[in-house]
């Protein structure tokens, strides 16, 4: 057990220390002194350089640094009381962190912004930007004096993710373990450390400044979108190479700093290793055998439904968020892959291009299937279902046999064409031709992400080479 009950390493790599130590119990042990927020006078403080206050200095901007001006928000009484209660009950936490505000309330946790009071006592190797961009540089002597006279160390911020005590220990451990394993990618949030007091576990992550997706997604230019997805797909490429499925890709789990054009993927609460609970699904068969299999099932089922069907119902992991679930999740595929994240990322792009959020707004999985079918049409949905040994049939009149192109959906959603058939439809197609060349590239990329068959869907590495993301 570490002397301070902290899994971090004092002047060593924090993440390395976490390895094997699992979550250390926080016993509120005595501090070993020193390292308080006010550093000693007379020393140059490289942290000051991070914020580029001195106009003569080349500034080093960390994705996790920020202006002090927006760091202290007004907090309402209820939240203040909640934070105070947390500090009172979680022994020793207030000696390490000063809670500032509540930044998130998810399904599985409450997240607080806090000042890291002991930042200087630990090695902070997780801060890749800071370590890459020359934190070792010394300023010229004249600047050294100027700094010591006018500057004091700026606070460092963290996000404290208080995981609800109702979460199973396995689930919590899974999240922390995967986060730890995924360290080293700029676009994935690094785990700094974690604490446990009684049944309460908290994960400490660097605070990443971001704005609510809903405030900017309509205003994004084509290049903005490309940068957003470059960052998201870079994160996915890293996660998927580690054979990990995130399972919950959506805007609230990809924190994007619009001003800096940087994003980080967070929330590995539902993530799993590819192959967990894996069992055979017909989609695993390829080529001829696959279509033969599908045909067999179609023939069997065309004779009707079994009256008293006592076959056990199919079970598959459905974890994720409504509206972002891939078709194979909806059809309960039992051999889901990392491709489910690509579909969800595609839904985010569809949201941006259509300027509608949420794009899909289903109450349940049946509704979600219907929404997808409205776009793709009955024919493609039938083969998609059969791929996973399921059957899709509907008599909803608005679902056509052929469905629509994604270009058309986007033109409709952005009021550039009216719906309808016949002559109206011809006019639509003419106007569709007027979609800008850049938008067409984005649509083509979108179609690759929203491919119904996961085997044909683009993967993260291929996505990085697609014209939409290439060369950024
Ligand atoms: N490192 C971070 N920096 C800033 N805000 C964060 C950070 N991590 C999480 N948040 C905020 O808290 C919210 C919930 O966190 P998340 O990890 O997604 O938890 P949950 O599993 O409860 O959804 C996020 O949507 C985001 O707004
Ligand atoms: Mg979340």
Automatic annotation (TrEMBL):
One of its GO terms (cellular component) is nucleus. Gene3D superfamilies: Phosphorylase Kinase, domain 1 (3.30.200.20), Transferase(Phosphotransferase) domain 1 (1.10.510.10). Residues 1-76, 129-152 are annotated as: Disordered. Pfam families: Pkinase. This is non-specific serine/threonine protein kinase. Residues 22-57, 67-76 have a biased composition (Acidic residues). It comes from the Eukaryota.
């Amino acid at each position: 057990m570490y002397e301070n009950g902290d899994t971090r390493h004092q002047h060593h790599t924090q993440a390395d220390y976490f390895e094997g130590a699992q979550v250390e119990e926080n016993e509120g042990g005595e501090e070993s002194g020193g390292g308080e927020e006010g550093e000693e006078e007379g020393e140059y403080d490289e942290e000051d350089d991070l914020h580029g206050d001195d106009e003569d200095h080349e500034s080093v901007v960390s994705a996790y640094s920020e202006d002090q001006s927006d760091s202290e928000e007004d907090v309402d009484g209820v939240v203040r009381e909640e934070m105070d209660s947390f500090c009172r009950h979680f022994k020793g936490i207030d000696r390490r962190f000063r809670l500032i505000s509540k930044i998130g309330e998810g399904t599985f946790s409450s997240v607080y912004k806090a000042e890291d009071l002991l930042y200087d006592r630990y090695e902070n190797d997780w801060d890749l930007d800071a370590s890459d961009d020359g934190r070792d540089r010394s300023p010229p002597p004249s600047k050294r004096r100027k700094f010591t006279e006018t500057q004091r160390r700026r606070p460092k911020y963290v996000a404290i993710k208080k995981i609800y005590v109702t979460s199973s220990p396995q689930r919590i451990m899974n999240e922390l373990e995967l986060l730890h394993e995924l360290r080293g990618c700029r676009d994935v949030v690094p785990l700094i450390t974690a604490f446990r007091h009684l049944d309460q576990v908290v994960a400490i992550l660097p605070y990443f400044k971001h704005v609510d997706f809903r405030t900017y997604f309509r205003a994004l230019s084509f290049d903005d979108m490309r940068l957003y997805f470059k960052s998201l797909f870079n994160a996915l490429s890293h996660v998927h190479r580690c054979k990990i499925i995130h399972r919950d890709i959506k805007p609230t789990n990809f924190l994007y700093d619009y001003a800096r054009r940087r994003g980080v993927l967070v929330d590995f609460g539902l993530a799993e290793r590819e192959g967990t609970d894996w069992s055979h699904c017909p989609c695993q068969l390829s080529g001829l055998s696959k279509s033969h299999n599908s045909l067999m099932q179609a023939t069997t089922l065309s004779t009707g439904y079994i009256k008293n069907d006592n076959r056990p119902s199919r079970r598959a992991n459905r974890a994720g968020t409504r509206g972002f679930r891939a078709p194979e999740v909806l059809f309960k595929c039992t051999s889901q892959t990392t491709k489910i994240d690509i579909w969800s990322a595609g839904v985010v792009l569809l949201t941006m291009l259509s300027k509608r959020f949420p794009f899909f707004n289903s109450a349940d999985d049946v509704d979600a299937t219907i929404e997808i079918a409205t776009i793709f049409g009955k024919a493609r949905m039938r083969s998609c279902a059969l791929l996973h040994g399921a059957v899709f049939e509907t008599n909803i009149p608005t679902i056509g046999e052929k469905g629509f192109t994604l270009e058309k959906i986007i033109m409709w959603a952005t009021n550039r064409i009216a719906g309808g058939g016949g002559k109206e439809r011809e006019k639509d197609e003419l106007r569709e031709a007027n979609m800008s060349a850049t938008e067409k590239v984005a649509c083509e990329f979108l179609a690759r992400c929203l491919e119904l068959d996961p085997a044909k869907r683009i993967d993260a590495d291929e996505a990085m080479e697609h014209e939409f993301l290439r060369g950024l």
